[in-house]
Amino acid sequence: MTTTIFVLIILYGIYRWSVSWIEYYSKLDTRLGSSIWKYSYDYHVVGKRDVTLEDDKNLVILRRKRNRAVTFMYFVFFLGFVIFMSFMNQILLRILNI
């Protein structure tokens, strides 16, 4: 149980680190938006023309870096959720065995 708490603390630190990278990338260009949970769109949106590599190479590269950071953040978040559920299971087993 102690190792689970330790792993959760480490995962929280990694999560905060990934969120800070997303915020950093978002501040570099206002077109990316300020939400840490949403991907910048690489797909066709009705009424809007997507920026391609030929139009604005720096924005597209920055958008791809930010999207990778968002993917990593989601991975850490859900891994932390699974480990937290394991921690809750350990607590409940200790309570019920007493």
Task: Explain this structure.
This protein has a domain at 1-15 and 64-98. The protein is built from two helices and no strands. Helix 1 (2-28) packs antiparallel against helix 2. The radius of gyration is 19 Å and the shape is elongated. The chain is an all-alpha fold and 98 residues long.
Quantity of strands, as a count: 0
Name the structural class: mainly alpha
Helix content: 55-70%
Q: Judging from the principal axes of the Cα atoms, what is the shape?
A: elongated
Q: How many helix segments?
A: 2
Described by strand count, sense and barrel closure, the largest sheet is:
none
Poorly predicted segments: none
| Series of secondary-structure elements, N-terminal to C-terminal | HH
Beta-strand residue fraction: under 5%
Average pLDDT across residues? 86
Distance between the termini: 16 Å
What is the rounded Rg? 19 Å
